Amino acid sequence: MHLYEYAIQDATGLAQLIRDGQVSADEVRAAALQAVDTLDPQVNAVVETWMDEPLSGSGPFQGVPILLKDLGVTAAGRRNELGSALALGCTAPSDSHLMQRLRLAGLLPLGRTTTPEFSASTTTESRLCGPTRNPWDTERSAGGSSGGSAAAVATGMVPVAHATDGGGSIRVPASMCGLFGLKPSRGRVPMGPQVDEVWSGLAVHGVLTRSVRDSASLLDAIHGAAVGDPFCIPSPETSFLAHAQRQPRSLRIGLQGGPLNGKAVDPAVAQTLMQTARDLERLGHRIEEVQPDIGLSWEAFVALNGCFWSSNTAAWIDAIAAATGRSIDAQNLEPATLALYRQGKALRATELLGALFERNIVARKLGDFFERYDVLLSPTLPGLAPQIGTYNAGQEQLDGLGWMHRVFNQSPFTALANVIGAPAMSVPLGHDPLTGLPVGMQFMGKFGTEGLLFELAGQLERELPWSERRPAVWAGNIR
After folding, report:
1. By C-alpha distance, which of 71, 315, 376, 45 is closest to 179?
2. Euclidean distance between CA atoms 314 and 307, whole angstroms
3. Which of 111, 119, 140, 233 is the most exposed place for a label (fewest CB within 10 A)?
């Protein structure tokens, strides 16, 4: 199988070729590994590849390769290092629930992708692995914290990659790399068995893909509570794939043009947002400009997230240091991570309870919003992918809250969905005319409405297709 034949297929297409006998799973694996070997030196997205994973399961994606983010999902006997020197050599004793489901779906894990240290950033430029570069412009960031997964999918190394999202980590790299990325509702995909929720419920599992049908079918394969999960979301009456193939009804969509921090957005982003609004109106949807009331100031919103990020990161670091015997210091942790650790260790229990109280305020306010609107539309990001090195510059001068403000000012639209537990997706609907960089638009729905979002995403993909847009670093260019 030639690389250009492999790269043009999404996961659904590859699975069909394998089922039809037009290509073998071994040929697909070989093409994927060739793509990684050839392209990864240009983008630095893959930590390691696994040559000895057996084919397993009998699900809809039998033989389709997948890469796993080096955080959140564990595979038995494989390293799980969280982008950190503190966790070097840490090995998982067993498959996590999600890993079991990925295998049952027939997916073939090929290795690990890069992540910023402990995923506490929306750029993937860890000291351990170095910067992950954007396939559209290798001097730019691929986003984060699932930046390695995004770069791997955007280049065509794999059609799908695992990702997590605690403040935008699926949607941010999707936007920067021109991909489709949906963050599911809290509890839709199991996190266990080692944990029930991550970052006090802010973080979820998902995937990054190049097509809506892949994301929908993969969510069909992995969703649903596992044994011991704290709660269960009712499954949709029809599959998520069926939703993606269905025309949505006329939706009432609130359009948020500016972020809650009051700052301006890049002209190319604003232009894409306005064009998206016009396209949606042409498709029969009703658009109304809004600025959601979240019941808190921007500063309070960042601070409540900081409580969750820092307390969970501190507990995580303590556990890993105890297991490895390594010291919690600048030798093993980056400055921003250490700052979050110190903030988390200094928190009082009552402060964390206060953050939970404020989270409830935000959730109730947005609950009222989604009684009036079906969807909230905004840019995924206020600007384009930053130059490598600019995001992390001067982090040693910031305390934990200062780092949180940097992260949230880089991606001020995305974290709202994490706080309220709602589904949200980034859809690649535009490009900057000057640089050619992708511009994603974010659509958020109320809790549990992934089906509705997939209906809208499928409609947009059919009307405004993006599959022919290719980055400069692309496996399909190799003949």
Report:
1. 45
2. 11
3. 233
The type of residue at 216 is: A
What is the rounded distance in angstroms from the CA atom of residue 159 to the CA atom of residue 471? Answer: 14
Whole-angstrom Cα distance, residue 301 to residue 195? Answer: 25
Q: Return left, alpha or beta for 178; rule: phi > 0 is left, psi -120 to 50 is alpha, else beta.
A: left
pLDDT at residue 58, as a whole number: 85
As a three-state string, the secondary structure of the chain is CCHHHHHCCCHHHHHHHHHCCCCCHHHHHHHHHHHHHHHHHHHCCEEEECCCCCCCCCCCCCCCEEEEECCCCCCCCCECCCCCHHHCCCECCCCCHHHHHHHHCCCEEEEEECCCHHHCCCCCEECCCEECEECCEEEEECCCCCHHHHHHHHHCCCCEEEEEECCCCCHHHHHHHCCEEEECCCCCCCCCCCCCCEHHHCEEEEEEECCHHHHHHHHHHHCCCCCCCCCCCCCCCCCHHHHHCCCCCCCEEEECCCCCCCCCCCHHHHHHHHHHHHHHHHCCCEEEECCCCCCCCHHHHHHHHHHHHHHHHHHHHHHHHHHHCCCCCCCCCCHHHHHHHHHHHHCCHHHHHHHHHHHHHHHHHHHHHHHHCCEEEEECCCCCCCECCCCCCCHHHCCHHHHHHHHHHHCCCCHHHHHHCCCEEEEEEEECCCCCCEEEEEEECCCCCHHHHHHHHHHHHHHCCCCCCCCCCCHHHCC
Strands 286-289 and 252-255: parallel
Catalytic-residue membership of 235: no
128: left (phi over 0), alpha (psi -120 to 50) or beta: alpha
**Rounded CA gap, 136 and 150, in Å?**
12
Summarised one tens digit per residue, pLDDT across range 184-241 is 999 999 999 999 999 999 999 999 999 999 999 999 999 999 999 998 999 999 999 9
Cβ atoms of 446 and 422 within 8 Å: the answer is: yes
Q: Among residues 169, 311, 411, 426, which one is catalytic?
A: 169
Whether 69 sits among the annotated catalytic residues: the reply is yes
Per-residue pLDDT band for 297 (boundaries 50, 70, 90) equals very high
Query: Which residue type is seen at 178?
Result: G
Catalytic pick from 145, 215, 217, 311?
Answer: 145
